[in-house]
Design goal:
alpha+beta; Alpha-Beta Plaits; 4-stranded antiparallel sheet
Length: about 375
């Protein structure tokens, strides 16, 4: 017998209750989604990633052998260790019109809307399919979705387009920056700080490479530029530096993490080229942590007009944050970002989605389904 239909709010409560923190196993939440869809007659494919302890999920509602549309979301959330939480962040709570919990806005709200609407979509008799693509480790640099995209050709016909439901106030977003991140590891020889001549200081070894990163960051401010973004240039920053055990010990290891964010038309890994070259010259290991391309959907693309009509909002030319949309686009699937909630609430304590925003997200998905029934 099919499970009892869950309201969107009840579905969001279920999803928030899973501590699906980025970088950790996600079996319980994937199993819940799989069982929910299966109980409503919707075939869902669990696609394990190479890590072995986490998976993507892909499901099709309607005829998968016809070109349709993808609703894309990620199941992972950032950690919730901030002291500003006033209650358990993994227990959805209601305060007025607000639904508070880790991931409520980014982006389990969109996923909850899609899952809650799935039984209705299955009853509509869609002439073209709506696919659900749910990924892992998006918050670590979109690490899970490339494996899902690799499997896509054997799961469905090439989609007409993808809606990535990151919180955008349901305003369609046509472009965003790409991102790449590297980890530098310098190795030295430990010793007493009174005899630095007998050791090799790993932190000191990092300094020329960090200087190269700062110089590269300053050079990028001079262009090229794209006025759709804020700031209008590509950027680079050193995000973390760590090393050393105590002040009187020569550090034998030091690690720095550096990211670059690229305007459309620029490969974010290319921005890090001078830094990687400096690392190689200094004998320092450089490891790519993550990379995804920018999104650039033409304003006159049919997908832009379609999502604008469904959302009732004019498209926004660009945002500076990144999403999985660039990877869908690179896989040949036109993509747009459009989801309930506001990105300014993401990654903060007391994260929330309003009931009205959740209902509006469901309305967008319902209208998409209705548009595919004729």
């Amino acid at each position: 017998m099919p499970q009892e239909t869950l309201t969107p709010e009840a579905m969001l409560s279920k999803l928030v209750g899973f501590e699906s923190v980025v970088g950790r196993p996600n079996g319980p939440i994937v199993a819940f989604v799989h069982d929910w869809l299966s109980s409503h007659g919707i075939a869902a494919h669990v696609l394990p990633g190479p890590e072995g302890d986490r998976a993507n999920l892909f499901a099709s509602i309607g005829p998968a052998d016809r070109p349709g549309f993808v609703l894309s979301g990620h199941l992972d959330v950032v950690p919730a260790a901030e002291p500003g939480w006033r209650a358990d962040p993994f227990l959805l709570r209601n305060e007025g019109d607000r639904l508070l919990g880790r991931g409520a806005c980014d982006m389990k709200g969109f996923v909850a809307a899609a899952l809650a609407m799935a039984p209705d979509l299955a009853r509509m008799g869609l002439q073209a399919p709506i696919h659900l693509a749910l990924s892992y480790d998006e918050e670590a640099g979109c690490r899970g979705v490339p494996h899902l995209l690799e499997a896509l050709p054997r799961l469905c016909a090439p989609p007409q387009g993808a809606i990535i439901g990151e919180p955008s106030r349901l305003v369609p977003v046509l472009a965003h920056k790409g991102k790449a991140a590297i980890r530098l590891t310098a190795r030295g020889i430990a010793g007493h700080s009174s005899r630095p001549d007998l050791g090799r200081n790993a932190i000191h070894a990092l300094v020329p490479v960090l200087r190269a990163a700062v110089e590269r960051a300053e050079a990028l401010t001079r262009g090229p530029t794209d006025p759709r973004f804020a700031p209008p240039w590509s950027s680079l920053q050193v995000g973390t530096v760590s090393g050393g055990q105590a002040l009187n010990i020569v550090p034998d290891i030091a690690v720095a993490e550096i990211e670059a964010r690229a305007i459309a038309g620029t490969d974010p890994l290319d921005l890090l080229g001078p830094v990687i070259a400096a690392a190689e010259a200094a004998g320092i290991e450089a490891e790519t942590i993550s990379a995804y391309p920018a999104l650039a959907l033409a304003a006159d693309h049919p997908l832009a007009a379609r999502i604008a009509a469904l959302s009732g909002r004019d498209p926004l030319p660009a945002v500076s944050y990144g999403t999985e949309a660039g990877l869908f686009q690179a896989a040949g699937i036109p993509s747009v970002v459009c989801g309930p909630g506001d990105i300014s609430r993401a990654h903060k304590p007391e994260e929330y989605l309003t009931r009205d925003e959740l209902r509006a997200g469901c309305g967008l998905i319902r209208r998409l389904g209705e548009s595919l029934c004729g």
